[in-house]
C-alpha cells in the first residue's frame, strides 16, 4: 500500500463520539436516549408523500436538474415567509439554502476565518461545531453557561480581558441548546448583542430547535432582536433547519446573513456541492406552500412536551443519582451525576442494561466535566422512556 499523505487536520482525526455510539443501537432491545434524532412516529408521512408526488408531477425537470447554488427561488420565498412568522423580516437575497444547517456552519468557517483565529463556543456546546472549528484549525475558547444559557456577565469579563478583536466570532445555540436544552433569557440576549456591538463580534446563532417550544413564552431570536439594539445590526448570522421540524432526511437548512457574507458563502458552496438537492427542495416547497409545517407544529410540540414531561417525571425518581435541568423546548435534558460518578463508566453499565446516553465529555472544548451526560427524549416513545429510565437506575446502582 502507498504511504498516503494526509492534510494536517486529518493526520489522526477523531470522529464524532455520538456517531461512535451508533454501533450499540443494533444490540437487541436497546433503548437510546443518545442521538438527537426526531421521533419517527411524528414524521408527517402522508402530507410529505403528497408533497413529494406533487413536486415530481408539477416540476419534474426542476427536480431532476441542477439548481441555483443559493437555492430554488420558490423555497427561498417560503423560508422568507417562515422567518417572518418567527419574527424576522428578511430579504430573499439574504437567504441561502444549505444542505442541512451543518453545512451553513462549515461555509461560514471557510468564509470568515483563518486557521489560528479565535472563536468562542458555549461550554458545554454542540460537538459538531467544535469538530468543524477544530478541523479548520481554529482556537476555541469556552464561554460559560448555566441553566439560562450563556452567562453574559462572565462573557463580558472574558472579553474585557482579551485584546480587542481577539475573538472573531461567537457560535451559540441560544434557544434550547444542544446539549443543555437551556434557553437564553431576554435580558441576556440583549446583553449579548450589546457586547457584540461593543467588541466588534459576529455571532452565529444556530437555531434548529427554536420552533419546538413546549413551555414558557416565546423569545425573539438574536437575529430579530439585533434590529432593535444599537450597533448590533448586521452582527448576527442565523442558521436554521427543517431537520428537527420536518425531517433530517431532506437535508435542508438555511442561512440568513448580511449580503456580503451570504454572497461569499454562495461562492464557497459552489465547490462543496454545487447546489442542495433540488428534488428535496421542491418537496419542501410543496409541503410548506400547502401549510404542512404550520399544521403539523402544534402536534409536534405537544408530542415532545409529553415525552419531555415523561422523562422528567422518570428522572425525578433518579434524583439521588442525577441532577437535571428541565428544558422548555428542544430535544435534550442535561444531567450531572451525583457523587462524581463518571458518565463513561456509567455508560458501560448502561449498555449492559440496554440503554444509551451520551457522556458529557463530548460537549467540551477543553477540561470536560466527566460527571455530566445528555439524554434525548425525542426518539423513544413514552413506554420506552419509562423502561429506559428504569434501566438507567439499575446502571446507577451497579456503578
Ligand atoms: C445545534 C445543532 N446545529 C446543527 C445541527 C445539524 O442540523 P442539520 O440536520 O440541519 O444539518 C444539529 C443537529 O443535531 C444541532 O443540534
Architecture blueprint of SSEs:
Elements: H1 17-20, H2 22-25, E1 31-32, H3 45-58, H4 60-64, H5 73-85, E2 95-98, H6 100-112, E3 118-123, H7 127-135, E4 139-146, E5 149-150, H8 152-160, E6 167-172, H9 186-199, E7 202-206, H10 222-226, E8 236-241, E9 253-256, H11 259-270, H12 278-289, H13 292-316, E10 322-325, E11 332-337, H14 343-352, E12 355-356, E13 358-359, E14 372-376, H15 382-398
Parallel strand pairs: 1-12, 3-4, 3-6, 6-7, 7-8
Antiparallel strand pairs: 2-9, 4-5, 8-9, 10-11, 11-14, 13-14
The protein binds pyridoxal-5'-phosphate (PLP).
Pyridoxal-5'-phosphate binds at residues 36, 100-102, 126, 173, 178, 206, 208, 241, 243, 248, 253.
Summarize the structure.
By secondary structure, the protein is of the alpha/beta class. The chain contains 15 helices and 14 strands.
Q: What does the overall shape look like? A: globular
At the fourth CATH level, what is the homologous superfamily of the largest domain?
A: Type I PLP-dependent aspartate aminotransferase-like (Major domain)
Global Rg:
21 Å
What low-confidence regions span 5 or more consecutive residues with pLDDT below 50?
none
Order of helices and strands: HHEHHHEHEHEEHEHEHEEHHHEEHEEEH
Summed over residues and divided by their number, the pLDDT gives a mean of 96
Share of helix, binned: 40-55%
Q: How does the helix and strand content classify structurally?
A: alpha/beta
Largest sheet report: 8 strands, mixed
Give the number of DSSP strands: 14
N-to-C span: 45 Å
Strand content: 15-25%
Strand adjacency order, main sheet: 2-9-8-7-6-3-4-5
- The total tally of domains equals 2
Hetero groups: pyridoxal-5'-phosphate
The CATH architecture of the largest domain would be: 3-Layer(aba) Sandwich
